[in-house]
Amino acid sequence: NAGVTQTPKFQVLKTGQSMTLQCAQDMNHEYMSWYRQDPGMGLRLIHYSVGAGITDQGEVPNGYNVSRSTTEDFPLRLLSAAPSQTSVYFCASSYGLGTDTQYFGPGTRLTVL
Amino acid sequence: AQTVTQSQPEMSVQEAETVTLSCTYDTSENNYYLFWYKQPPSRQMILVIRQEAYKQQNATENRFSVNFQKAAKSFSLKISDSQLGDTAMYFCAFMNYGGSQGNLIFGKGTKLSVKP
User: Fold this and answer.
1) Is residue B99 pLDDT above 70, yes or no?
2) Contact A44 B106 (CB under 8 A)
């Protein structure tokens, strides 16, 4: 198993550009989520999904979109990048919501100029 | 809303010694999980240890153990025989059991440096 994979590892954007951060898992996990990590803030939940076709907002959803068309993939879309979205982004997955340990991908470091 | 507090932004320990990282949390729920995650300079989030709130026995994983005090809402991590590879950020995290509130809530982290 590759576990949770994320691409790209690093990305630099200009203000106003859009992009998609990719996340995939091969463990047949139903639950997937996106977190952002800012200095001194710990990890904060952006969006999550409890299965294909089902998504919900977390603590800091503004400026981000998600969809879940398959069990394996959970992409995060930045619609119009802003410098405030400069952060490290982590994807995580588990068998269920609130019933199992979450496993994290390696992260994507995003810089918005 | 649940909150997780790590009151020690930075700590250091000599190699081979023991160190304890503190974590407190606030919740009105009775069933939940607590975790410690390690984040080395590689940035990968690695699960160190997990505790189910309904279990009275403290979890242990090799050199890592916890002191779980449910009434005090305290969940500290003890690292014995510290090694240079233990140098990392350590995050305490809380998760409600089941339901729509079962996402992870993280503390702000403790930066641990192990000195030779």
Assistant:
1) no
2) yes
